[in-house]
Write a structure and sequence with these properties.
Elements: H1 3-19, H2 22-42, H3 45-78, H4 81-115, H5 122-151, E1 156-158, E2 164-166, H6 169-173, H7 178-206, H8 213-246, H9 248-255, E3 266-273, E4 278-285, H10 288-294, H11 313-343, H12 353-361, H13 365-379, E5 384-386, E6 390-391, H14 402-432, H15 437-448
Antiparallel strand pairs: 1-2, 3-4, 5-6
Helix pairs in contact: 1-3, 1-14, 2-3, 2-5, 2-7, 3-4, 3-8, 3-14, 3-15, 4-5, 5-7, 7-8, 7-12, 7-13, 7-14, 8-9, 8-11, 9-11, 11-13
């Protein structure tokens, strides 16, 4: 394979690994703040145990996110010098703002959050925990501002050498897809963190290592997931309308619309065939595609045949259906799980084992949905790195031999696989060996004294 394909695969591997951790921590930080607030307000040892456990999970996840993020940024220089050469005037400052306004907040107050609970006042500690959570959200703001600009570029001008310059920073940052992409990602993080909380809590119940924190945490996770998934449906619908307006080729690939149609059926499943420009074995629902994609019964969708530049259809088509399928599963599990849990008067030991195993099996479902959605977004933008402005092939390195890229790709795969397995095993061990309630009660009494 040539340098272009290998560089794309390598960056995909790196960003796929990296995104697993921020998508947990953006929302998990706010869960931790809530647990800290409840522990301080009620004096309940269960809430304190919840805070201590999930703060450790946050710290481990934060560390892996930082490490993988640093190596990813190096690839802009080693694999994609054309991107920084042409778009560096925009990408560089946005990445710099993320470091200055978000990472410094997180790094500056993380130490107080992790180690200062018994060394500073409750008010100071609560403030530090809240600032860390704010930092994670600000980080998401800047990163998604850059990615959204690459999808729907606005507020720039291009000189004679093809270098992009900022004309209006507000238009760059608040580009047409940014509000939809940001809300979609924040809700995705809420769902990812919620199901992580639900899954590990269920695992504790199954392994009989649950403590007084478990029912509180499980109820919190199910409640947030049940609300967030409904909001995500509306956010996803709005995002789809935005994609229809600004990236019609991507939308055509998502639905495998080969030729312009009016009205458009909704293809539930099928096998896109780019050679024949047909979807084999397709299961379709008449009119529903137009209703969802345009909010009218006879809305028109442009077909892929009308676009000179179009993304590969199969990866986008299947990834979108994986994302939606996992989302539907999240809706069913969270709503039914909350209903059954409420019927037990919030006694998790009374939940049926099959439901607990379902919760445990959904622990990392947020990762699957996030990766699938990310692939729809990024592959659907091809063949452009900056949509309609900078082609991917024009940004890849011309200096690094493909053999070197292939070697480092293998090294990344081995290292990231080991790190991911270690991360999952550490979480499993932590869930099976939580701190005892008596220990937490003693800590609370010491704090009161």
């Amino acid at each position: 394979m040539d340098a272009l394909i290998l560089s794309r695969i390598q960056f995909a591997v790196n960003i796929s690994f990296h995104i697993l951790f921020p998508v947990i921590n953006i929302a998990l930080a706010w869960f931790v703040v809530y647990f800290r607030y409840k522990a301080g307000k009620t004096g309940d040892a269960g809430w304190l145990a919840a805070y201590r456990f999930w703060t450790k999970v946050f710290a481990i996840t934060f560390a892996l996110g930082v490490v993988s993020g640093v190596t990813m940024s190096f690839q802009f220089g080693t694999n994609w010098p054309g991107f920084m050469e042409k778009a560096g005037n925009i990408a560089g400052p946005l990445l710099g703002y993320e470091v200055l306004t978000a990472f410094f907040l997180e790094a500056g107050f993380l130490g107080i959050m992790l180690f200062g609970r018994e060394r500073v006042s409750q008010k100071v500690h609560m403030t530090a925990s809240t600032i860390v959570a704010i930092g994670t959200s600000i980080s998401a703001f800047w990163i998604l501002a850059l990615d959204s600009w690459m999808q729907t570029p606005q507020g720039h001008w291009i000189d004679a050498e093809g270098v992009m310059h900022v004309k209006n920073w507000l238009e760059v940052i608040f580009n047409p897809s940014f509000p939809y992409r940001l809300s979609h990602k924040l809700l995705a993080s809420a769902l990812t963190a919620s199901f992580l909380i639900i899954g590990l809590s269920a695992w504790q119940i199954l392994k009989k290592t649950a403590n007084s924190a478990t029912p509180k945490v499980l109820k919190t996770g199910l409640t947030v997931a049940a609300v967030a998934i409904v909001l995500q449906v509306f956010a996803g619908d709005a995002h789809g309308l935005n994609t229809h307006k600004y990236q019609p080729a991507k939308l055509a690939a998502i639905e495998a619309v080969w030729h312009t149609e009016k009205p458009v059926p909704l293809t539930l499943i099928g096998w896109p065939n780019e050679e024949t420009q047909e979807t084999d074995y397709a299961v379709k629902v008449p009119y529903l595609g137009s209703l969802i994609l345009t909010h009218t019964m006879d809305g028109e969708i442009k077909g892929l045949s009308e676009f000179a530049d179009k993304p590969p259809v199969a990866p986008v088509f299947f990834a979108f259906r994986v994302m939606v399928g996992v989302g539907v599963l999240m809706l069913l599990v969270s709503w039914y799980g909350w209903y059954r849990f409420r019927k037990t008067r919030w006694q998790p030991q009374q939940l049926p084992k099959w439901l607990l195993y379902t919760f445990a099996g959904m622990t990392f479902s947020g990762w699957l949905a996030t990766l699938a959605g990310w692939y729809v977004t990024e592959i659907g933008r091809q063949p452009f790195l900056v949509y309609g402005v900078l082609r991917t092939e024009d940004a890849v390195t011309k200096m690094v031999p493909s053999e070197n890229i292939g070697l480092t790709l293998v090294m990344y795969l081995v290292l990231y696989s080991a790190m991911l397995l270690s991360y999952i095993m550490v979480l499993k061990y932590m869930a099976e060996h939580p701190e005892h309630d008596e220990h937490e009660t003693g800590r609370l009494k010491a704090e009161e004294r």
